[in-house]
Design a protein that fits this description.
Elements lengths: L2 H17 L1 H4 L8 H12 L3 H16 L6 H21 L5 H25 L4 H5 L1 H38 L1
Helix pairs in contact: 3-4, 3-5, 3-6, 3-8, 4-5, 5-6, 6-8
Length: about 170
């Protein structure tokens, strides 16, 4: 996937997340599109050298979102991208969409709980089982949708290149 397409993906998802969040909000819960994109792209891209700048850029952009604690969101988005890459590389027996869902839910839940703890200095049981968990599930579902669209886009270009190479031979 070329750099312009990646930049366009990140830009569009950032705009959707930060401008259209009232439309996407369900009971006050808004999914983290950049985290979902980072995890989805980490499951698709097999080369870490090409993936690492994307993870860094997405982590910094995710931290600049409205109402977020920059250091926590940046750290957990970066860790989610690396964990997703490692899990997708070393656990081929689990379907990639399931890996995307599980990693996104875990990282989104950890980010929500950590942000809540930093802001309030308490851990309320109602928050741990309520809004943080539902927001993580919402982000996981959005991540799976992003994965399906992104996978089709990436594989479509790969299939075209393979067909062109076969025609040349």
């Amino acid at each position: 996937m070329n750099k312009i397409k990646l930049a366009l993906w990140v830009f569009i998802l950032y705009i959707i997340q930060n401008v259209f969040y009232p439309i996407m909000s369900i009971s006050g819960l808004v999914p983290d599109f950049i985290l979902g994109f980072t995890v989805a792209y980490s499951c698709i891209e097999p080369r870490f050298k090409k993936l690492s700048p994307v993870i860094i850029v997405c982590a910094v952009i995710a931290g600049t979102g409205t109402g977020r604690v920059f250091s926590i969101v940046t750290l957990l988005t970066g860790l989610a991208g690396v964990a997703s890459y490692l899990m997708c590389s070393y656990m081929p027996f689990i379907p990639k969409i399931l890996r995307t869902l599980v990693i996104t839910i875990l990282c989104s839940y950890l980010a929500g709980v950590t942000e809540y703890f930093v802001l309030t200095k308490t851990l309320a049981y109602a928050f741990l089982t309520g809004s943080a968990l539902w927001q993580a599930i919402y982000t996981g579902v959005v991540s799976c949708i992003i994965y399906l669209i992104l996978n089709r886009s990436v594989n479509k270009n790969t299939q075209k290149k393979i067909l062109i190479a076969q025609e040349r031979n």
